[in-house]
Task: inverse folding
């Protein structure tokens, strides 16, 4: 994987996922504070995403590396009308690795073809955010002891949610069984169901979280955004059906964990935070270890 | 009465592209960049066709295409047929096939795609041939036949 950009979750194979997860475990157990000494990582955030940027920068600093970059396009030459092409060409001279987030879809793929410096996609519009998916995989592997043969509940906005789409693509390599829980307007797109059919994997679509919840190993919650609904009355009618409460977790498996890519709004009641099955805050911490693993691997240091 | 029907004359050597849907003629001209060809070219359009209703035909003297080049027109003229002519005789008949990859001809239908916002040649993988579906190499979104726009 040395020098290979990570733009899309499908750029990595099942073996790559497992290797990165093993590396993240190593970083979590034994921090390596000097491995990135003398390396410069550029974080180019053409749109703000504080959580993701801080997570990447923290990962670099914890390995003794240096960070340059900008946190939104207003504070860069983009505001003066510079093209992405020029920005990438210039910044490539200053760094060993580029981490970029951009509002346009395909921007990271384009950037990765312009430079010999590897590029990590930290989100390109509604398209891809592969490090989020890898940290989800790491969280699942850590809590379940395996990635094979798990039952995954995906809840909320399954139509526009890029995290659920990427997670589905990745988990489909491990014989997962899926439950899709969403309002009609936000159902899992046909192309993903077709993909699962081709692989012979089982999935069930349902409108409520409750049925079959006792079979779940992972409940992956996402935000249902009001603006996604064409009919505001429909939103008011359905919004409470996709809110997880602690009481609903009674009778679920002991190993079951609740995940969420964050930020949450109201789709997980705060009473779940005190439930030992809540895992979303630890999940965010896992993001540091997985990003350390990805960076070290791409720079050929591990 | 003498038959006054206009015959498009036969060519000695070259390529005849037949069964182009009439409305796709100018797209075919643009895709093949015929504007730049300095040999004799004859176009006919709105000709009656049992299969297509109205069809167009292009006869190109002394011009031959490699498969990769001519296959690009399959996007707009999937039923097009080629007759390769030598000494007034059809020596080969070919049908066009949608290629596996399409570079720089079609526009990505996703307005948020980087190719619609920065100067980049588009690039697609063909994921369905019969009912054309193109997957953008950059934004990974699908552009289907209905929304296909030739640049």
Result:
């Amino acid at each position: 994987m040395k020098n290979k950009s990570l733009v899309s979750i499908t750029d990595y194979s099942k073996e790559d996922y497992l290797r990165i997860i093993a590396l993240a475990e190593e970083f979590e157990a034994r921090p390596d504070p000097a491995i990135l000494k003398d390396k410069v990582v550029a974080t180019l955030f053409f749109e703000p995403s504080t959580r993701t940027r801080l997570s990447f920068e923290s990962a670099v600093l914890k390995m003794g590396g240096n960070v340059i970059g900008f946190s939104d396009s207003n504070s860069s030459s983009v505001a003066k009308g510079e093209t992405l092409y020029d920005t990438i060409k210039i910044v490539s001279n200053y760094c060993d690795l580029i981490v970029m987030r951009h509002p346009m879809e395909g921007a990271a793929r384009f950037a990765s073809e312009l430079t010999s410096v590897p590029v990590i996609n930290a989100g390109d519009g509604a398209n891809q955010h592969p490090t989020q998916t890898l940290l989800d995989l790491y969280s699942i592997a850590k809590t379940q002891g395996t990635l094979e043969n798990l039952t995954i509940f995906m809840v909320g906005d399954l139509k526009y949610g890029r995290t659920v789409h990427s997670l589905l693509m990745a988990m489909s390599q491990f014989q997962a069984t899926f439950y899709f829980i969403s309002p009609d307007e936000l159902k899992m797109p046909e192309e993903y169901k077709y993909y699962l059919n081709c692989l012979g994997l089982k999935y069930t679509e349902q409108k409520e979280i409750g049925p079959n919840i006792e079979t779940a190993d992972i409940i992956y919650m996402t935000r249902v955004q009001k603006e996604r609904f064409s009919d505001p009355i429909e939103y008011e009618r359905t919004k409470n059906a996709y809110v997880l409460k602690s009481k609903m977790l009674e009778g679920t498996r002991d190993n079951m964990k609740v995940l969420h890519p964050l930020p949450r709004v109201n789709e997980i009641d705060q009473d779940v935070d005190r439930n030992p099955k809540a895992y979303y805050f630890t999940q965010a911490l896992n993001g540091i270890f997985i990003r350390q693993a990805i960076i070290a691997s791409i720079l050929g240091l591990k | 009465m003498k038959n006054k029907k206009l015959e498009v004359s036969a060519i000695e050597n070259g390529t005849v592209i037949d069964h182009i849907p009439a409305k796709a003629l100018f797209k075919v001209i643009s895709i093949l960049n015929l504007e730049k060809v300095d040999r004799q070219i004859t176009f006919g359009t709105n000709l009656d066709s049992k299969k297509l209703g109205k069809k167009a035909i292009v006869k190109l003297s002394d011009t031959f295409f490699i498969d990769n080049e001519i296959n690009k027109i399959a996007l707009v003229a999937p039923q097009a047929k080629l007759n390769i002519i030598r000494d007034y005789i059809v020596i080969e008949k070919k049908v066009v096939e949608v290629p596996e990859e399409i570079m720089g001809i079609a526009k990505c239908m996703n307005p948020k795609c980087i190719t619609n916002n920065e100067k980049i040649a588009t690039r697609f993988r063909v994921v369905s041939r019969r009912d054309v579906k193109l997957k953008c190499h950059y934004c990974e979104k699908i552009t289907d036949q209905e929304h296909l726009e030739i640049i």
User: Anything to note?
Assistant: The interface with chain B takes residues 8, 83-85, 102-107, 109-110, 124-128, 191 of chain A (CB under 8 Å). The two ends of chain A are 10 Å apart (CA to CA).
